[in-house]
Amino acid sequence: DAKTTQPNSMESNEEEPVHLPCNHSTISGTDYIHWYRQLPSQGPEYVIHGLTSNVNNRMASLAIAEDRKSSTLILHRATLRDAAVYYCIPTLGEDSNYQLIWGAGTKLIIKP
Amino acid sequence: NAGVTQTPKFQVLKTGQSMTLQCAQDMNHNSMYWYRQDPGMGLRLIYYSASEGTTDKGEVPNGYNVSRLNKREFSLRLESAAPSQTSVYFCASSEATYQGSNYGYTFGSGTRLTVV
Q1: Integer distance in angstroms from the first to the last C-alpha of chain B?
Q2: Contacting residues for B77 by C-beta, under 8 A, at least 6 apart
Q3: pLDDT (tens digit per residue) in B63-110
Q4: Which residues of A touch B56 (CB under 8 A)?
Q5: Contacts across the A-B interface (CB distance below 8 Å)
Q6: Is the Cβ pair A97, B96 closer than 8 Å?
Q7: Hey, is the C-beta of B106 within 8 angstroms of any chain A C-beta?
Q8: Mind listing the pLDDT tens digit for each residue in A5-54?
Q9: Which residues in chain B touch residue A99, judged by CB atoms under 8 angstroms apart?
């Protein structure tokens, strides 16, 4: 199974961009990279996912390295509401019904 | 648009008691999942149901049973609760496919269970 490495925590100032790194050097060719976040006392919330190309949506951008061994979640302008634990998750392939394997994530602290 | 609804939100059980956690989704998703999350940890998969009528064990199935009642509902049962099952339980659903595409999961707000 693919394993991920993320910083335990990161701090950023409000209204500045945030780059959250993730290393997934053992990812297989068919594993998608998902990002979720979990606000305090809430269930996880889908943020973005991708396979090979960089992806953008209204919440964030996902930059995937060409060798797919790492990726970076980019919050373009962080707000206090973005304070959460961010999880980088490779999905297991189609034989495993696209199960998600969760690590401990990165706790993002936003300073006003 | 409710998404994934879990009941109850909070529960305290005595050791040895049984209970069923309920989960329902209104997005017509095929796949549903039960996770537990212990303090400071990521989620761990208990059971999942790839489609109506099927269930499979996840990473930590011992002490739990599940029922996929229909496409909308997926329940988790603790037959004899133990203090080690004190945790936050999340239900999720997704429109998983087997053609190489991939979708996000939608989670419920969780059930906070304490076993004393």
Answers
A1: 36
A2: B18, B19, B20, B21, B64, B65, B66, B67
A3: 999 999 999 999 999 999 999 999 999 999 988 654 444 567 899 999
A4: 97
A5: 56
A6: yes
A7: yes
A8: 999 999 999 999 999 999 988 887 778 888 999 998 899 999 998 888 89
A9: 45, 48, 58
